[in-house]
Amino acid sequence: MAMPPAEKVIMVDANPSKNGHGDKLDDLPVADETSHQIGVDPWYQVAFVLTTGVNSAYVLGYSGSLMVPLGWVGGTVGLLLAAAVSMYANTLLGRLHLLGGKRHIRYRDLAGHIYGPNMYKITWAMQYVNLFMINTGFIIIAGQALKALYLLVSADGAMKLPYCIAVSGFVCALFAFGIPYLSALRIWLGFSTIFSLTYIFAACVLSLKDGFRTPPRDYSIQGDPSSRVFTTIGAAASLVFAYNTGMLPEIQATVQAPVVKNIEKALWFQFTAGSVPLYAIIVIGYWAYGNQTTTYLLNNVTGPVWIKAVANLAAFLQTVIALHIFASPMYEYLDTRFGSKVGGPFAMHNVIFRVGVRGGYLAVNTLMAAALPFLGDFMSLTGALSTFPLTFVLANHMYLVANRQRLSSLQKSWHWLNIVFFTVLSITAAIAALRLIARDSKTYHIFADV
Known about the structure:
- By secondary structure, the protein is mostly helical.
- The protein has one domain (43-443): Amino acid/polyamine transporter I (Up-down Bundle).
- It is 69% helix and 1% strand.
- A two-stranded antiparallel sheet has the order 1-2.
- Helix 1 packs parallel to helix 6 (187-213) and helix 4 crosses helix 5.
- The protein is globular.
- The termini are far apart.
């Protein structure tokens, strides 16, 4: 597909006075048909979708996977820098939504429009890997939360982690059957926020209590110099993973007009108020336990059993909702490509289709999660293989290509600097993550009860 002439590129909403349902730019046709709802959600609903991803149960692992290998200075500076560059890159991507006379509701549609059909396929493959591994990680977290909950009420050890992961995958599938598309989450986003605040608040309070009662902690970075290099690079990939979804065009597709301004409002909410709980639990968790912080913070905390039980249950339930967000691009593809165009989403034949197709997809996720439950390694590899390229490399290069006649030499140099830097970082982070997986594969056997 050829790139349209530069003077015809539509980058942002051109006429603010017409923003709304009558805005001609926002009423442009989509680049390809879809069976899911487009352009129906207010900006604040989209903001809660983004915030749900940021404050998912993954935050329970960041104190251990980010701060422990980076320390106070590296971890704190890294969090702030990652937030700044992520906000910048996502804003660039959001401004490309209306391009060449069409709304690009999928990342691969946008890449295909700019680069051609080969890049369409490559982008789809990278995004699939990104979302598949994120979903696998969610099922691991849900299994960990379920196992921790079980151990609070029974000490017989009968429920191993692989069993808990299998149950988690089944519950995630049940939820997926009943929520046909991303916009249908609505009230569930409210429940997700409540669940997130519950386990974050509980973890912070219990960590503070432990921190004040225990002797001084050790905050030194462990390991020999060579291993510290690899763990630092892996942690850098996890930093990027913490803020980004790898599916911003798909999320932006659901927002009401004006689509560019509204996605920017949602992004500002995500990176300001929406990130406060994330920072709180990361800093407090590491302060309380130092380099002994685990990759599931609720395994560190001590306190009343009922509080820990509620926190773990909230983490489990929130994970079920958050997974659905990151699985929605795959669901949209399957529904559009293979689903029936007849009847509503709750017609019997459409429900049966979701049971078979989504159930099969999540079964594969669950099998991989049970076989290789190394959560920190998943975050690092996902950030390296797909989050870096999708969020930073492609976003900067697509913006550069789409606006090549509008940018000054200094602006072009800035974008090329970002492209080269994040490409190198992506390659080195992938090597570091594979090294971690190889190391853990020697430590833990397949279907390990970690």
